[in-house]
Amino acid sequence: MAAYQFIYVMKGLGKTYPGGREVLKDIRLSFLPGAKIGVLGANGAGKSTLAKSISGLLRIQAGRILMEGEPIDAMLPAERLRRGIAHVPEGRQIFAGMSVAENLELGAYASAKADYAARLESVRKLFPLLRDRMKDIAGNFSGGQQQMLAIARALMSKPRILLLDEPSLGVAPLLVAEIFRLIVALRAQGIAILLAEQNARQALSIADRGYVFENGKIALSGSSKALLNSADIAERYLGMGGAAEISETASEVLASRLRNVLFPAPSNVIPGDE
After folding, report:
1. pLDDT digit string, tens, across residues 96-126
2. Contacts of 162 (CB under 8 A, 6+ apart)
3. In order of start, what are the domains of the chain with their CATH numbers?
4. Measuring CA to CA, which of 11, 100, 162, 163 is 20 to 30 A from 58?
5. HEC string of 213-246?
């Protein structure tokens, strides 16, 4: 039996931006391994700030973040990634000037390389769209295809917790349905998922439990079924979707630098000549 029932616990989480605006206020949230949690709310409710606080991109100013009982709120994002926390941010943020294969290899950069080939094959099976386009430049993909690539890149790190921030934003309806089917399929891999979405109906349809954020606080929480049947939720949130957004194209300079990290040029120094 595991020493801790919950894989992840947040206690009294708080975050204030410059100017004194509180964006997270006393957030208390926990979930089991393999759970799917929906975080709902309008723009500015605190959903993205929560995801960034979990992955370490933002530092909290109050409360504690525990993973299997161990505090991790002081850890850098890279260390949290190695512990199994992967973040797919709003807007996808793929490396548009690089190929699909290079994006996926970057996803595995911080993890052990021993089973890289097996992970790559697993991701290619889960995302057949990518299988035949490994050499294609990611920036030429549609918004939905880029979102699939962003999720696939995160999976290359072998996450135990996957943070998905607005995966339906700016994506065609047909591909939104496909993305949500893929999220459901991840349950079989035992990955816990925190899904931050404005599209409440879509999120609650696949989540085990939902949390409704308003002004940085949890206004409502409960099972997805109960929230879907709530008249209050139906009136304020169901059917709400995000506005279209187009991510910026990554520069060729950045792509070149990242290639140098992934594929360093062989040294021309001959042993003994130093």
Report:
1. 889 999 999 988 887 767 788 888 998 888 8
2. 86, 88, 151, 154, 155, 186, 191, 192, 193, 194
3. 34-58+81-262 (3.40.50.300)
4. 100
5. EECCEEEEEEEHHHHHCCHHHHHHCCCCCCCCCC
